[in-house]
Amino acid sequence: MKNLDQKINAVFGGKVVRKDLTQKIKGNAIVPNYVLEYLLGQYCATDNEETIQAGIETVKNIIGQHFVHRDESESIKSKIREKGTHRVIDKISVKLNDKADRYEARFSNLGLVNIPINDDFVQKNPKLLSEGVWSLINMAYMAVEERNTTPWIIENVKPIQISMVDVGEYKDLRKDFSMEEWIDLLMQSIGLNPEEFSLRSKLIQLCRLIPFTENNYNLIELGPKGTGKSHIFSELSPHGILISGGEVSKAKLFVNNSNGNIGLVGYWDVIAYDEFAGKTKKVDRGLVDIMKNYMANKSFSRGTDVYQAEASMVFVGNTDHSVSYMIKHSHLFDALPKDYHDTAFLDRIHAYLPGWEVSKLRNELFTEDYGFIVDYLAEVLKALRKEDHSKLYQKYFTLSSSITTRDKTAIEKTFSGLVKIIFPDLHLSKEDAKLLLDFAIESRKRVKNQLIIMDETFNDDPVYFEYVSMDGNKFEVQTLEEIEYGVPKDIIHDDDSDSKLSANIEVNYEEQRVDSTKISPKLAGRTVNVRENQSNISYDKLFGEYLVGAKSIEIVDPYIRMPYQVRNLMELVRLVLSKRVSDETTKIHLKTFNTDDKIPEMIDTFDDLKESLESMDVDFTYEFDDNIHDRSISLDTGWVIALGRGLDIWQRTGGMLDFSEYFQQKRICKEFTMYVVEK
Question: What are the distances in angstroms from CA 669 to CA 431, 545, 549, 651?
Fold first, then answer.
């Protein structure tokens, strides 16, 4: 077991499960993960393998005997009749039959409808009156002779969710983990392998949890298909509901004026709209207006009465074009239905998650390690909705006075949500606060940038998304798209000096591009900061012009070991060859290191590379030096290129069928700094 898994079990024993178990017991049962993990938590919340295996069999038996598959509903009903009583696992919803003056239940899989249910069950579980709740239900059958009388009897209903959690204990135990360990625990809890994600990518995933822990939070995520945008909202929590964007109506969401029934916002903490994008979708314009009011004022009307609600709104959908295309030709809300291209509606959105930065789901992205039972985590997040930490950053920083009230509220709600998720004990340093504040500001700025493109009046009073620390340092935040593709002319402020980035923040690389065919004879040194998840970066763009005319090159990098690292080396050699200006032999010397058991294998690799380069007039040599630490490329033209990460500047690609494997500019970068200096 990994060290982190050992710590997780030692600290949170009984509240965590191995995440691969869910798929082992799920089979073809169409049931949310929180239902399965509720059962796993009863029998498999341990690190004892023997107990886990016994628990798996127990849970499989429970699923096999009590879970209702639609195609087996008749056999289950027969079993209830024969036994007289039987417990089932099904999703049950309730409606009021006002003619009979009673509540009646509908079973999603069992197929029973209009079954009388005791008022007490409904009063204790009001969510039964909306879209339904997965529950353990004791069903009985008693034959009757009276017409219009059902033989089915609901004896008991127990919603599948943990009844109580100790939030104080949860906060107190947080101190046993570093920030990195805690984030990895949360990633494993939602079923993902943290080793496959950068810190920024982890924050994007965890930001999806904010609606569960922050009241009236409005979030949108648009991106390519297959990235798991809606997964969390259907699988994580019994307090959230995922509905199709095409099924949204005023009556379903807010209030049915014909019968007075309150809609989903009155029952659920999170309402997520799946497949929200689609330019040709028809939208009720009246619904857009009601949603605008609710998202801004946290209230909706029912006749002459006004009701408050706390449900957060999440909108997820697929984009039609690449980010570069949208930035060049339209805006990042382009994929939404036309009636949602309402800037007043979009201005209510607190954060826009860049779904195009999220990797498409593949097997290695899922974890087999330990994480919180999702129902336990869901109850903790729900309990934390009562808290507000939106001003906690003010201990270290002050937002620019140019930031509007609506922008500030959005930033602070995102910041507060991330604090509850990552630092529930509120023990965060200045650096921690800066990390969360930067992400919160960027998430809101992405919304504001699109509003300015769509309606130029949003730029009448320019907003500078910057803040100042208590010691007077100013920081301006840019979205990653601005850094990769430049700031659209629509949102460049007249006061150019104010829109430049601070020296200790990222450099807009678009301003530094140099056409390698038009090299200036007077090159200057350079410093480039590349942000995590940034793309549109290649060796040529970073330092290609400095390689022109170089005849002798020394590469120092202790980590040329894995196949993708060897690939990086070969790509650098190819770039060197493209910059040659004479037919003379080019000398390339590599200093690297490896473990003793791997050195023979690498000798074979480097010898093969040396042989292949001889026919191209390249003298390739190498040595293993266990004393090297810094990474650099030294040129006989007098320049030294210092790469903090060496040649390994990109995150892993999706493999041989991923186009970025063959095109550097399409790869996602790790965070690093490059310096080019004279010897």
Answer: 22, 21, 28, 6
Query: How far apart are the C-alpha atoms of 72 and 91, rounded to whole Å?
Result: 15
Enumerate the β-bridge partners of residue 302.
305
Name the residue among 557, 559, 506, 560 with its Cα closest to residue 533: 506
Integer angstrom CA distances of residue 243 from 254, 297, 355: 14, 23, 19
Structural tokens at position 288? 């857009």
CB crowding 656-667: b at 16 or more within 10 Å, else e: eebebbeebebb
State the pLDDT at residue 69: 87
Q: Which of 533, 480, 532 is nearest to 510 (CA)?
A: 480
Q: Is 317 exposed, middle or buried (0-12, 13-18, 19+ CB in 10 A)?
A: buried
Q: How far is CA 638 from CA 99, 255, 289, 524, in A?
A: 91, 73, 64, 12
- Cα separation, 520 vs 409, in Å, equals 48
Residue where the block lists tokens 């690093």: 672
Two structure tokens written together for 599: 């050195």
Question: Alpha-carbon distance 172 to 174, whole Å?
Answer: 5
How many degrees, rounded to 5, is the angle at CA 518 between CA 513 and CA 521? 100
Distance, in Å, from the CA atom of 580 to the CA atom of 576, rounded to the nearest integer, reads: 7
pLDDT of res. 42:
85
DSSP per-residue letters across 600-636: HHHHHHHHHHHHHHHTTTEEEEEEE-TT----EEEET
pLDDT of residue 77: 94
Give residue 512's pLDDT.
37
C-alpha separations of 583 from 544, 546, 590, 618, 639 in Å: 19, 18, 22, 10, 21
- Please name which of 514, 583, 588, 506 lies closest in space to residue 544, comparing C-alpha atoms: 514
Query: What Rg do the C-alpha atoms of the chain give, in angstroms?
Result: 29
Alpha-carbon distances of 388 from 64, 155, 320, 384, 391, rounded to whole Å:
43, 41, 37, 8, 8
Low-confidence ranges of the chain (pLDDT < 50): 496-520
Strand 312-318, strand 270-274: pairing: parallel
Q: What's the start-to-end Cα distance of the chain, in Å?
A: 48
Dihedrals phi, psi of 410, to nearest 5 degrees: -60, -45
Angle between helical axes of 179-189 and 3-11 (0-180°, round to 10): 80
What stretches of 455-522 show up as alpha helix (H) in DSSP? 480-485, 496-499
> Nearest to residue 581, comparing CAs of 548, 555, 536?
548
